[in-house]
Request: fold
Amino acid sequence: MDFTAILSDSSTIRPLILSGKVLAVSGLLQILLGIPLACWLARSHGTLNNIMDTAVTMPLVFPPVAMGFGLLLLLGRSGPMSPLFGDNIIFSFPGLVIAAFIAGLPLAVKPIQAALKSAEAARLSEVAAVLGKSETVILLQVLLPYAKRSIAAGMLLALGRSLGEVGMTLMLGGNIIGRTNTLSLEIYNSVFNGEFERAIVLSMIIGAASIAMFIILKKVSDA
Reply:
């Protein structure tokens, strides 16, 4: 097996670069949207909270292909959300980002939500409130620093889940060669075409990235 030749081939480099871009954008969205969502879920109550909590958890328990099909119906050209987002989401880079973001969202939100709902977090909030701190100050200066390990762990888990996502990515991205074939989809394409050596190399790349994330996660957890 010529590892170097396969790795340097343009048909390998393109999916690798595309996956890197998808992870970068979806990771930024996890920070900008996932962390505030986790804070809101941890500190609010009521029907809307239960609905949002269920929606966030769904990608963990619902089959990815079925979830992707639902998103396709929702965001597609004839879907109810198309007037808001236009016709350029499905089978494009934004579709890949949405798939990666939704796949990783529960793994980003749940650790943070659990940390902020812990007994220790409640005790810290009570102490800060007694000292006259506002809700915003308590959240930004007390609770988020307390949950920093959970935030880091959630982001890493979300990135790892997004990297390996296939079902939703296939539905929203379409697996268009040269445009929307991410690293995970390219492994599927290689196996389907009988290019097993190439599939092995691509799997090794994803495996190395996953191991690196696990090592970082272990260091974060032990810190």
Q: What stands out?
A: Residues 41 and 49 are 6 Å apart (CA to CA). The first helix runs from residue 3 to 8. The two ends are 40 Å apart (CA to CA).
